[in-house]
Amino acid sequence: MHFEDFWDRPVQELFQQLQATPAGLTTEEAGRRLRLCGPNSLVREFRFAALFSFFGFFANPLVVILVVASGVSLALGEHVGGFIIIAIVLFSVLLNFLMEFQARHAVEEIQKQIAITAAVMRDGREQQLPVAELVPGDIVRLKAGDLVPADGRLLEVKDLHVRESVLTGESLPVEKTATDLSNEKHGVADANNSVFLGTAVQTGIGTAVIVCTGKDTACGEIAQRLAMRPPETEFARGVRRFGMMLTWVTILLVLFVLLVNIIFHRPVLESFLFSVALAVGMTPEMMPMIITVTLAQGAKRMTRKKVLVKQLAAIEDFGSIDILCTDKTGTLTEGEIVLDRHVDFKGKDSENVLQLIYLNSYFEAGIKNPLDDAILKHGPPSIVGYDKVDEIPFDFNRKRLSVVVRHADEYLLITKGEAESVFAVCETVTIDGVPQPFDAGRRSEAEDTLKKLSADGFRALGVRC
Q1: Per-residue model confidence (pLDDT) at position 48
Q2: pLDDT over 90 at 167, yes or no
């Protein structure tokens, strides 16, 4: 059962199509759907896939020519030559296989992201069931620390944030809602009312109805693509065509030599043996090994630069690239947030801003997000003598978090959050140590600073005291 773009559909429509209710399924109905849809697990690699992959390397026309030539050499008593050709072929095939074997288990790595059990509503009560037994229409409960067991539409949420880096590559958690999306089409990255297999709940709780399981999930589609054999590269295609051409040239030349010898009344057996010897001599025994060793050297150099090559033949195609487009997070960057600048509303470095934001994150209770971790990893300012008095937790309407701290006899309310939200509650701004009205001109200047930071790729937070 597969529903494309289910996050764009109204909840009631999904319930009708799934023939489900908010109370969940019965064990009997779930069993029937499990037999119909299959287990909620990703497609596993065929047991003998590695063996078939190994023998697949022998399908190369050049390798076939060499195998035939070695067989003929052995049949004619040329054991040394025959075994040398076989050794060259095996070395070439083994080197290709071993290089690709290093990257064979990408599907298994994705499968490790999947939870083992899930909290499911069955027969009107919550049960802990194996993830493999989940079916479309099941109602599941999610809480902080859980891995999402299947693709589902959210019904209820409370402060729910989910890390979706396994799908989108973005390191920051995504805030989830239980509301219908706008009428236009949305992609997986914009489906804030849904959760997806393999993603992780960072904070909050939620309830969802399962829509897609196993190979029909977004994560399942990725796993299936990884399990497929990559398309033939241009270099591999060129080698194959060259091998076919060489095969036909060899066959035609052997037939021609054999025919000429017969016309001149040479003995047939002697003419045949001469033709076979000519074919073996024409075969470029060292060519597959030279190609493999050359490409392996390229793959080795790429490995030193922390690039894993799945196909040796891809090295040649990689060298032919004019423009390479790649996702930023985790590829060009490490997916780790670092506090780089702390500036005032004019964009000038400010130690006072650093101290305020550090105090807020340091005294914040509960689970800290990656932004807090980045702030606390930065070189700490002096916070000696500060004590926490109270806290106003993060609120999704306010989009701010506030802490009250005491320093000597002075009480400070320090608020951080979305910059625009912080601007909205500011009345004054400190300039050269003197509070000044945060009027329209200064607000405009602060917004310009925020735009410049955003244009430079920074994720900016606002802080006030």
Answers
A1: 60
A2: no
123 is catalytic: no
Q: Which of 140, 135, 122 is CA-nearest to residue 26? A: 122
Count the helix, strand and coil residues of the chain and give each as a percent rounded to the nearest 5.
45, 20, 35
Cβ pair 71, 170 in contact under 8 A:
no
For residue 465, pLDDT beyond 90: no
> How do the domains of the chain map onto residue ranges?
6-41+110-221, 49-103+231-319, 351-464
Write the pLDDT tens digit of every residue in 413-437: 999 988 888 888 888 888 877 888 9
The H helix count followed by the E strand count for the chain is 16, 13
At residue 107, the pLDDT reads: 47
Condensed to tens digits (0 to 9), the pLDDT of residues 320-342 reads: 788 877 766 555 666 678 888 88
Q: What does the alpha-carbon distance between residue 321 and residue 449 come to, in Å, rounded to a whole number?
A: 38
Task: Answer whether CATH 3.40.1110.10 is correct for domain 351-464.
Answer: yes
Q: Which CATH architecture has domain 6-41+110-221?
A: Distorted Sandwich (2.70)
Q: Which of 123, 317, 327, 448 is catalytic?
A: 327
